[in-house]
Structures are given as structure tokens and as C-alpha cells.
Design brief:
It contains twelve helices and 19 strands. The protein is α+β, with helices and mostly antiparallel strands and about 400 residues long. It has two domains: about 30-175, no CATH class; about 180-280 and about 295-310 and about 365-395, no CATH class. The chain starts with a helix and ends with a helix.
Length: about 400
């Protein structure tokens, strides 16, 4: 190689190196590696009106819409959305930084999961952001993970795909876009449970004291005994840490046949009522024989206080001084509960002049109002290990004869 050729090749190498460096420098427009994939999105999120999540086959998993009472899922009748998932997705999208250019050829999109989600085999998620006219709508196709904290992405309308530094919390299950928390009523709070499947088929379990470990069924047949001591406890624990598999408006579920009812009474005077409705399995179109799918059960919740507001009788000269013996003997359950709670508080808190470290526990009236406000408009499909408890019979709890 002569000197002139060598100098030419060296110069060409310098030029190529410069081009490579410049192609990876961010000039503020976000079109190069190092820049934000969606510049300005963080400032637009405050005007966001809806986020639509579309998966394979153009299936709309969820349209999360801003409403008067917060974010809700349109496909589920406006049930509250999983706000943490929504926030996580928007944060990841607005903060995603471009790391490396990837393919701009449509025939290779599917390898990264950034192909159009209309295909039945598409693996990515189309995120459609609508601002109610305050800003043009935007669309992003989030593809497969590209390693820890990395993902592939392509903006709708652009050919170029990118690897970005972002961790998207996406799910192809529609239920994961819902606020699935229903109720948490620990079995330790439960005093009595009554199951009613209609036609006189009832089952009652209870325990005398909150400190008791096991629940005992009422009216055990003579000569029979429980399979084991804690066999009824799972019934009492069915309302602890409940998350729904699915949700629908209560009015839809009330049109279904009644399957069972349940009442859960707590030691502090709250009763939670469940109305269980049965939805028959849908046979497959053109199937030669009925499907083996089990029916779906939908639970409607309501709550009532079991005792009146523990305010006590109005003050009169008689009861101010203690009243007569008859009046003293007519103490209500509510008064007993209030006196016991006051005594326990006095014993724990000393003179009573100290500032309470914790706010007082909500009353049964307040708890009932909260449950009715949160759950009253909805019917929930619960996991089978929860809903199965409401169909147990006495024979299920006893040893075989």
C-alpha cells in the first residue's frame, strides 16, 4: 500500500468515526440515541383524557378514561382502574430514552414485537393517548423486553424502531387494568357466618369469643363429628384479602339466577351480606356436545350495622344521677360494647389526658357506609377458592358416617 492510499484510508476512517459519533449525539430533538423517545410527553400527561391499550388481533384490553371520580375502565362499565399500573406505564413512556436504533423495515418488526397489533400473532401493545383535543393524539407500540430495564418501541406513523431504557408494566389480561381489591375482613373479626342456599338448606358457624381459634357449626347431627377442628375456618376467612377475577355492573348480575346468600357478622357489630348469582357457561358455537366449563358466580356486596349508634340515651336528671334499679338494668348491647371499649381504652391509655397516638377505629356505621359506597354498584367474580366456601354443606365439614 503506497503512502497516498494509506493517507486516503486513514482520512476515510476519521470521517466514518465522526459520522458514527454524531449519529449518537442528542441535539435536543430526541431523534438520536440518548434523547427522550417522546419529548414533552411528561408535560402533556396532565391533559390526558384516555389511554387505550390494544393487543393482538386489535383486542382492546382496556380504555382507561379520566372521569369525575378518577380513572375508570370503560369496558367494565366505568369500574375504577388500577391507578398504579396506569401511572407506571405513563411514567415509563414519558421517561424512556433512546439507546440504539433498530430496524426500520416492516418485515422485521415482528422480531421486536413492534409490528401492527392487528395481527393475530402480534406480541406488542399499542398505547393510544388521547388528549380531548388539547393535543393531537399519539400512539406508541411497545414491543418485547430487550434485557433488564430495556424494551423495543416504535412510534405510530414512524418507520424507525428503537431500543429504549424503560421498564413497562404491561399485561395482556384485561383484569389487571382494574382496581381488583374488593374487601379485607379477617377471620379474626368474624363472630358468625350464615350460609343460605335456599329451600331451608342453611349452614351456620360461629365462635363465642374473638380469641377462639376455631369456628363451630351449629346443630351438628347427633353421633357425627367434625373432620378436624379447623374445618369450618376457611368459610370464615373467605372475605380476607379478596381480589376479584372480573367485575361487571351490579344491575347486570341481578338479572342472573340466585345461587346462595351469605351473612358475615363481626364482633364489633358489622354485618356484610353477599348475594351470589350464577351465570351458566356459554356453549361453544357449533360444538357437538356441551362444554365442561363451570358456571361463573358473581357476588354482590352490601353491609349494615348490627347495633345503633353508640351515643347513649339523652342526659336527664334520672340517668345523670344513676337512675333507678330498673333503668340501670336496661343496658343495651351497644352500651355494653361502648363501656367495655372505654374501659379498655382507659386501661391502655392511663389517665386519658394524653394525646391519642392513633385515630379511633371507624364505627360499624362508618364501615358499612364505606363498603356500600365502594362495592354497591358492582358484582365481582371471585377466585374459586373463595366462592366455593359459600356452597359448603354440613356433610362437607363432618367425618363420613
Amino acid at each position: 500500500m503506497n503512502r497516498r492510499v494509506f493517507i486516503f484510508m486513514a482520512g476515510l476512517g476519521v470521517v466514518l468515526a465522526a459520522v458514527l459519533v454524531l449519529s449518537r449525539v442528542d441535539f435536543g430533538g430526541g431523534r438520536n440515541a440518548g434523547g427522550l423517545h417522546a419529548p414533552g410527553l411528561a408535560g402533556r400527561i396532565g391533559n390526558l383524557e384516555s389511554l387505550k391499550v390494544v393487543h393482538a388481533g386489535n383486542e382492546a384490553l382496556a380504555t382507561v378514561v379520566r372521569g369525575e371520580r378518577g380513572w375508570a375502565v370503560a369496558e367494565k362499565g366505568g369500574h375504577p382502574a388500577n391507578f398504579e399500573r396506569l401511572r407506571s406505564v405513563l411514567d415509563a413512556l414519558s421517561q424512556a430514552r433512546r439507546v440504539e436504533r433498530k430496524t426500520a423495515l416492516p418485515e422485521f418488526y415482528s422480531r421486536l414485537g413492534v409490528d401492527d397489533p392487528s395481527g393475530a400473532d402480534a406480541t406488542g401493545y399499542l398505547l393510544e393517548l388521547d388528549y380531548g383535543g388539547r393535543h393531537p393524539p399519539e400512539g406508541f407500540i411497545v414491543g418485547q423486553r430487550a434485557g433488564a430495564g430495556m424494551a423495543y418501541i416504535r412510534t405510530v406513523g414512524e418507520a424507525q424502531s428503537w431500543m429504549v431504557s424503560a421498564d413497562f408494566d404491561l399485561s395482556d389480561l384485561a383484569r389487571d387494568w382494574l382496581d381488583r381489591e374488593v374487601i379485607d375482613l379477617p377471620s379474626g373479626d368474624i363472630r358468625r357466618v350464615v350460609l343460605d342456599r335456599g329451600g331451608g338448606d342453611t349452614l351456620e358457624i360461629a365462635k363465642e369469643d374473638a380469641g377462639d381459634i376455631n369456628f363451630t357449626p351449629a346443630d351438628i347431627p347427633e353421633g357425627r363429628e367434625l373432620s378436624y377442628g379447623s374445618v369450618a375456618n376457611s368459610i370464615a376467612g373467605a372475605l380476607a384479602n379478596v381480589e376479584a377475577n372480573d367485575v361487571r355492573p351490579a344491575a347486570e348480575a341481578r338479572a342472573l339466577p340466585a345461587a346462595a346468600k351469605a351473612r358475615y357478622e363481626t364482633f364489633d357489630g358489622l354485618e356484610v351480606r353477599l348475594d351470589i348469582r350464577e351465570e351458566a357457561p356459554v356453549a361453544e358455537t357449533g360444538a357437538a356436545e356441551p362444554t365442561a366449563d363451570a358456571p361463573r358466580y358473581w357476588a354482590l356486596f352490601s353491609a349494615v350495622p348490627l347495633m345503633p349508634e353508640a351515643a347513649g340515651p339523652p342526659e336527664t336528671p334520672a340517668n345523670k344521677e344513676g337512675g333507678d334499679a330498673d333503668q340501670a338494668g336496661e343496658t343495651t348491647e351497644a352500651g355494653d360494647a361502648t363501656d367495655a371499649a372505654a374501659a379498655a381504652a382507659a386501661e391502655a391509655g392511663g389517665s386519658g389526658n394524653e394525646t391519642a397516638s392513633e385515630p379511633p377505629a371507624p364505627s360499624p356505621q362508618e364501615r358499612a357506609a364505606d363498603i356500600n359506597a365502594k362495592l354497591g354498584e358492582w358484582a365481582y367474580e371471585l377466585p374459586a377458592y373463595k366462592s366455593d366456601q359459600w356452597f359448603k354443606t354440613m356433610d362437607d365439614l363432618l367425618k363420613e358416617e
